[in-house]
Amino acid sequence: MDTEFAVLFTESDTEWRDQALCNGMTHVFFGPAAERPERRVEREALARSFCRACPSVLPCRRAGRMNREHGIWGAENDEERAAAGYAPRSPSRRSVIQARDSSRQVAEAPALETITEQSQDDHHEFDPFVTDSL
């Protein structure tokens, strides 16, 4: 998670919205239903060009992540947010679902390794079938 937001922006801080370059450009940042993949790539490239010059890019990205939004938020699309662990509430494209699932697998892998190591250690501590015959 982006920790710089905790210091710079509070959850109630919405001034960034007034300073955002995307005001009034909803059609660029949110695609229509059944948008062709080639058109989506072009539209997202245009949206990212605005984001790169925008003074509100970081708080916008944070809002998109925290609210699990669709569309371009702070130069991130649905797949990129899903890969970072912030998938939209109801992903609509297979690529978003795949990014979400990959992110979950990566996040769960260290936890599974720890559990496996602990259970192996526990197994070695007490084995009811091993007796000391010496």
Notes on the structure:
The protein is mainly alpha-helical. The protein has one domain. It has helices spanning 4-8, 15-19, 26-29, 37-53, 57-66, 78-83, 94-125. The relative contact order is 0.09.
Tell me the fraction of residues in β-strands, as a range.
under 5%
Number of domains: 1
Low-pLDDT parts are 1-9
Spell out the helices and strands N to C.
HHHHHHH
Based on DSSP secondary structure assignment, what is the total number of beta strands?
Answer: 0
Q: Estimate the mean pLDDT confidence.
A: 77
> For the terminal residues, how far apart are their CA atoms?
56 Å
> How can the largest sheet be summarized?
none
The class by helix and strand makeup works out as: mainly alpha
Instruction: Tell me the Rg in angstroms.
Output: 22 Å
What helical percentage do the residues reach? 55-70%
Characteristic key phrases:
mainly alpha; 59% helix; 0% strand; 134 residues
Short synopsis of the structure:
This protein is an all-alpha fold and 134 residues long.
Secondary structure topology:
Layout: H1 4-8, H2 15-19, H3 26-29, H4 37-53, H5 57-66, H6 78-83, H7 94-125
